[in-house]
């Protein structure tokens, strides 16, 4: 087996990107710029946090819970669906589905983004869903379910 260097990987359109988000999450991304697909390992901070509500026009997203638990919320037309996922659970969001994720303290999730002809920038804010999810107390909801 031969190791592929980062420079060689970039020739295939594959690169890494690591960020600390404003909400405290650590994101470790592997992006494939040729088709827009990507993988991301997200590690939640010591306190639980909501991500930013959003949707994609072309991409499908698969979320997998590695450790901890998450709450996902999705909005379709006038309907709001809220669900808890535990270790080993997963959820898929199709294009045009507005969604948001709450990560419990220290949780780890994996996100795979894929789809046909992904746009250069295929992330669109969903302020309406942000308004709804900010009203949810995830810790209380987790204890009820």
TrEMBL record:
InterPro entries, per database record: RmlC_Cupin_sf
Source organism: Paenibacillus shunpengii
Record protein name field: Cupin domain-containing protein
């Amino acid at each position: 087996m031969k190791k592929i260097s980062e420079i060689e990987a970039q020739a295939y359109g594959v690169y890494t990107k690591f960020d600390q988000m404003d909400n405290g999450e650590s994101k470790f991304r592997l992006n494939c710029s040729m088709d827009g697909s990507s993988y991301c390992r997200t590690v939640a901070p010591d306190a639980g946090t909501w991500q930013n509500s959003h949707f994609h026009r072309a991409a499908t997203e698969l979320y997998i819970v590695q450790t901890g638990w998450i709450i996902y919320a999705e909005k379709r037309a006038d309907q709001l669906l809220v669900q808890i996922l535990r270790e080993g659970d997963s959820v898929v969001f199709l294009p045009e589905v507005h969604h948001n994720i709450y990560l419990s303290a220290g949780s780890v999730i994996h996100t795979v983004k894929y789809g046909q002809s992904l746009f250069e920038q295929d992330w669109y804010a969903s302020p309406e869903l942000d308004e709804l999810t900010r009203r949810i107390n995830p810790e209380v909801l987790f204890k009820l379910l």
